[in-house]
Write a structure and sequence with these properties.
Radius of gyration: 18 Å
Oligomer: single chain
Strand content: under 5%
Largest sheet: none
Number of helices: 3
Number of strands: 0
Distance between the termini: 60 Å
Length: 76
């Protein structure tokens, strides 16, 4: 099965766009890995409000850090 040039061009553009998003994410210091960024992009494409998604991610990171800090102080 051979892909059309249009399909190959779309795939190439999608990869380039995602690479640019990953670089932007890195420059902004989001701490998102490739998989997490990919999930976020898919959620936004599905209609999730990006500002609310960012708020949820920040809250989850705070909670995870708090739990990690608790575990560190308990084991010390």
């Amino acid at each position: 099965m051979k892909m059309s040039n249009t399909k190959l061009t779309q795939i190439k553009e999608a990869k380039e766009t995602f690479q640019a998003l990953m670089e932007l994410s890195r420059l902004l210091g989001t701490g998102l890995d490739i998989e997490t960024l990919s999930i976020c992009v898919r959620l936004c494409e599905a209609g999730v409000n990006p500002e609310i998604l960012a708020t949820v991610i920040r809250e989850l990171k705070k909670e995870a850090k708090s739990k990690s800090d608790e575990n560190t102080s308990t084991s010390a």
